[in-house]
Amino acid sequence: MKKIVVQLAVLMSALMSAIPAQAAQLYRWVDDKGRVEWRDTPPPANVKAKKVEQRIVGGSTIETSTMPYSLQQAVRNFPVTLYVSNCGEGCDKARAHLVRRGIPFTQKNPQDDVDGYKKLTNGGMEVPLLFVGNERLRGYETGAWDTALDTAGYPRQPAPGYSAPKPAATPAPKPASPPPPPPLPEGLEQAPPPAQ
What is the pLDDT of residues 27-80, one digit of tens each? Predict the structure, then answer.
């Protein structure tokens, strides 16, 4: 039994030393015979090395999204779009509802494209308007919104690392166009603009 424990300890230490570090240094050089060498130590002093390069190699980690897989699927299959403007309490509650649940969503202001929004809503301009995939929810109603989000597979609580989308910027007011010139007295004509 003691021999098995010793063998197991030796095997475990060998396995632990075989696991690569998160980042390792590698040295690459060309020796005096033209051979390319790769080692984890610098070239020995007795070797005439040319083109010595030191490289840091990362571990074998795979980058993944910070969102859980189920949330990634919901976002892909049923993207959430919220149309709001500065409509007051209704729009504020609608936005807060999505943020409270940790829903990744796109926020749009219908004033940015009035004609497009009217086509989307069959002529209406009411807000808030929520799309969960192809499902359209007019106005804010907690129960209906939760049902649509639950059915699409969105979580009830924010995922770790969730940050709410930035509110859509309100468009800057358009500058007023200059007033037309006053009418000229009878018999006078407007002079043509100067040639450039």
Answer: 787 888 888 887 778 888 887 878 888 777 655 554 455 778 888 899 999 999
Q: Is the pLDDT of residue 21 over 50?
A: no
Number of separate helices (H) and strands (E) present in the chain: 5, 7
Question: Mean pLDDT over all residues of the chain?
Answer: 77
Contacts of residue 80, Cβ cutoff 8 Å, sequence gap at least 6: 98, 103, 104, 105, 106, 130, 131, 132, 149, 152, 154
The CA radius of gyration of the chain, in Å to the nearest whole number, is 33
The type of residue at 107 is: Q
What one-character-per-residue DSSP string does 92-143 give? HHHHHHHHHHT--EEEE-GGGGHHHHHHHTTT---S-EEEETTEEEES--HH
